[in-house]
Amino acid sequence: MTQPILQIEDLRTHFFTDRGEIPAVDGVSLHVHAGEVLGVVGESGCGKSVTSLSVLRLIPSPPGKIVGGAIRFKERDILRLKEREMRGIRGNAISMIFQEPMTSLNPLFTVGQQIREAVSAHRGLGKKEARAHTVDMLRKVGIPRPESIIDEYPHQLSGGMRQRVMIAMAISCGPELLIADEPTTALDVTIQAQILDLIRRLNEENGTAVMMITHDLGVVAEMCDRVAVMYAGKVVEEGTVRHIFKNPLHPYTQGLIQSVPRMNEQRRRLFSIPGHVPILHTQMRGCRFADRCQHVMPACYEQLPELVELEAGHRSRCLLHEVKFKEDVV
Amino acid sequence: MKSYLLKRLFVMVPVLIGMTIIVFSIIHAIPGDPAETILGQKATEQSKEELREQLGLNNPWYQQYFTYLGDLLKGDLGQSIRTKVPIAQEIMPYLAATAELTIAAMAFAVFFGVNAGIISAWKQNSWFDYISMLVSLVGVSMPIFWLGLMEQWLFSLKLGWLPSIGRMDQRNPVEAVTHLYLIDSMLAGRWDQLWTVVKHLILPSVALGTIPMAIIARMTRSSMLEVMNSDYVRTAKAKGLSQFFVVYKHALKNAFIPVLTVIGLQTGALLGGAVLTETIFAWPGVGRYIYEAISSRDYPVIQSGILIIAFLFVMINLMVDLLYAAVDPRIRYR
Q: For the ABC transmembrane type-1 domain, which residue ranges apply (chain B) (predicted)?
């Protein structure tokens, strides 16, 4: 594969709250190649959304702040850009779809006005051309009667339609990277499938790279080329979809995969990982997953394991691997 | 939108009828004989009886009410006891004076209040935020008469920049057509007078507009803060729009609805006449007109004054409702 278009290195986004400094994203490194779909998986509060918002520098500040690391988009460090230059990237080279189509569109402007805004801001099209382009975009995302829908308000559309509008807005300037933050979580299952299909199609037809934030392993299996599993502000495992599903190495990933109900198995209770996500703070030591891990060892509480590459493109952050590695050597 | 408008207008009818009933009953609840009030205590029984007959006071109350309603519909508000002039004619200049002052005061209040609120929310916890919220706190707590007197002391007496009382330079007045002197002086092409009219307006409208401004600033700020954290504002930012555009277009339009309510209520209150401000600045407005009627027991004037103020309040509310619909399509299409 080619040089990655997005490279996140040791990103640290902290929130400064009354309860102290919370390292929501604590040294995350990820990369997305051109035309690739990267899934970022993890449960709520693991820092996956904060990571994605950091890429567009949309972290609400205060309380949030990117305190360290680098985000390189095509060789430019996004974190060093001026706000003006950053605006030129948002919605243009990198755009984003959010989780809640119900609240992510402005209720007081028509669908067309909202899409056109992005087009006018970045492409400088005249009114007529921008409208024609907007109709094209609506048609492209599979909205019926785009010529009339363009003048409707968000409240007149269903959830699935609104998410299509969000996607039309996101792709209206032909982005190279699309960040989809749980784009299907708020939708019905049948609509979910349609929206995922649409994103996949845009990826294949236009070669748009996608960073898919989700907590749904089904979505990952369906959509992604590679996966990064996050836990408590850190990437714990990274690999191709095949690696993650066939040979999960980190106990957390193994737990996640076991929690997925299977069609051909009759089980009375679904598997779940015991315990809770730890409350994050800056003085944490050791492995974040130690409290919930089946294979926990005393060393896990002392030392934060490194993310080590165990086979080509498959990396995991667990002390077990080091133990195994030593055993193998011995 | 059309059906919404019709619905709103339709709802107004019972409100207006209710208003007339209340105003009508007030006057009938006042103890004493109206004929005696009008003619004085020394009038003969015969002349009083004649007047009663003439005014229809001997008719049953419901007949009197319908006569009253019929007169109202014809624009007849009755006659002032004191001046014997038809009230509809007499009250016009006062209403115009009040309207001019109210519009100026509200323009001042809305411009500064809304902008201060927006910037405070945008730059939350900044110096601007602290100072403007402090100023608005002082603004709501300050007695109007004191503010008015201080203004006169500083800007008229000490600095001599602005006139302290009246509506325009009386040495060379403009002919009153609409009684809105801003418009009258423009109609007459008297640009010199237009300038003096503006100068006369400044102090009273600042005095009158300070409290509404403070309320509007606080309302705008809290409403904006709520909206600024919403998902669609984040979407607007993610589109690559400038912060100014995000704040003044996407956030403000959404934050404006509660602010609109406050603006409407405050405008209605000011239209009712601001007796204190009008007295301090010798402003011949409707507040003073009614106040004088009360002191001389000019009941028909009081009655009509109340009715007109109530009517204006209803109209302002209607306008606010229509503005809601203009801003928010969800109201329009309901």
A: 95-324
Cα–Cα dist A113/A51, whole Å: 29
DSSP string, B284-329: --HHHHHHHHHHTT-HHHHHHHHHHHHHHHHHHHHHHHHHHHHH-H
A106–B250 CB contact, under 8 Å: yes
All domains of chain B in start order, with CATH: 9-73 (no CATH), 91-332 (1.10.3720.10)
Residues of A at the B interface, defined by Cβ within 8 angstroms:
56, 58, 60, 62, 83, 87-92, 95-96, 98, 100, 103-109, 117-118, 121-122, 153, 155-156, 166, 169
Report the residue of chain A nearest B242, measured CA to CA: A87
Contacts of A117 in chain B (CB under 8 A): 236, 239, 241
CA-based R_g, chain A, Å: 21
Q: Which of A93, A8, A88 is nearest to A52 (CA)?
A: A8
> What's the CA gap between A167 and A127, in Å, rounded?
21
What tens digit of pLDDT does each residue of B26-60 get? 777 777 777 777 777 787 888 888 888 877 778 88
Reduced to 3 states (helix: H, G, I; strand: E, B; else coil), residue B255 is helix
C-beta of residue A75 within 8 angstroms of C-beta of residue A4: no
The Cα B322–Cα A167 span in angstroms is 34
CATH topology of domain A4-93+175-261+271-329: Rossmann fold (3.40.50)
Chain A residues lying within 8 Å of B236, measured CB to CB: 106, 117
pLDDT digits (tens, 9 = 90+) for B243-293: 898 999 999 999 999 999 999 999 988 887 688 888 889 888 998 898 888
Cα distance between residue A276 and residue A308, in whole Å: 25
The full DSSP string for A74-106 is: TTEEGGGS-HHHHHHHBTTTEEEE-S-HHHHS-
What is the C-alpha to C-alpha distance for residues A277 and B53, in angstroms, rounded to an integer?
89
**Domain-by-domain residue ranges, chain A?**
4-93+175-261+271-329
Provide the 3-class DSSP secondary structure of residue B78.
Answer: coil
User: Cα(B135)–Cα(B113) distance, rounded to whole angstroms?
Assistant: 11
The stretches in chain A having pLDDT less than 50 are: none
Residue A304, phi then psi, degrees to nearest 5 = -80, 120
B231 and A107 within 8 Å at the Cβ level: the answer is no
- Rounded to the nearest 10°, the torsion over CA B48, B50, B53, B58 is 40
Taking the model in full, what pTM does it have?
A: 0.83
